[in-house]
Amino acid sequence: MKMLSMAFLILFMSACAFNGIMPEHYDGQKVEKDREAITQFAENNRLTTEGLSERYPFIDSTEIIGSEPSTGSAGTLEPGTYPVGGEIEPGRYQVAVSEKVSASAVVVEDSAGNRIIELALGTRSPSTVLDLKAGYSFSFKTRTGEVHLEPQNHEPRQPADDGTLQIPPGIFEAGTHLEPGTYRLVTEVLPLLNENGEPEIYWNLNPAQPEMEVSSGETGEEMPPEGEAEVMVDIHENDMIVTEYPITLKRE
Predict the structure, then answer these.
(1) Which of 136, 133, 100, 138 is CA-nearest to residue 119?
(2) Exposure of 238 by Cβ count < 10 A (0-12 exposed, 13-18 middle, 19+ buried)?
(3) Are 88 and 68 a contacting pair, CB within 8 Å?
(4) Is residue 240 exposed (0-12), middle (13-18) or buried (19+ Cβ within 10 Å)?
(5) Class of 75-151 per CATH?
(6) What is the pLDDT of residue 136?
(7) Sequence ranges of the domains in the chain
(8) In this structure, is the dihedral angle defined by the CA atoms of residues 25, 27, 29 and 34, taken in order, positive or negative?
(9) Percent above pLDDT 70 for the chain
(10) pTM over 0.85
(11) Which of 23, 40, 81, 139 has a CA 20 to 30 Å removed from the CA of 116?
């Protein structure tokens, strides 16, 4: 809901600026339109407005590029905050909550205190995959239950026969955890840092609904999901995807 509201606000403000609804002055000061941001979204469905780090704080971190090469060591943790390199070995982990956990939060921060990712784990979404590097902190918050850290190999995710690639919440490096290339963004948002550490946030205002049928039933004809849109994204080697929500891409 927050993502939808943010997208609507950006488009509404842009439309107001174009159509003269937005005042040209505020408190006596001239309002400057971010024409580059408007152009980027119109041409590439890419958000470049100021304040993106409030919604995507990972873009302020300089420690994300490059995946953690080790696989770490398995462990079980109670609620608390733990240093990576201390009580948690650096590595790539599947992080999963125990059956007793109905709701919890997992927060990862870099060595400078920048929040990289915050995830709600519980009954509906019990696990994620994270790179935990030395100097990071890992926090687990819940009323009851534990969280399990299981080492993960660096294996690339494979698309389905129709080219669809499912990416769960977590941290993923192009070239290591998925193949670089041109993809169509099927779901709503794709947040990433490119290899130069620059944010690229792509937004699909008309995402397909994964629950909907893609067959016309009796006729047997294939039909695109309602809402399917052509938001094309080039994902390059070493780009880092950092997502709090599942993403669906389709290889083109």
Answers:
(1) 138
(2) middle
(3) no
(4) buried
(5) mainly beta
(6) 97
(7) 2-60, 75-151, 164-212+222-251
(8) negative
(9) 72
(10) no
(11) 40
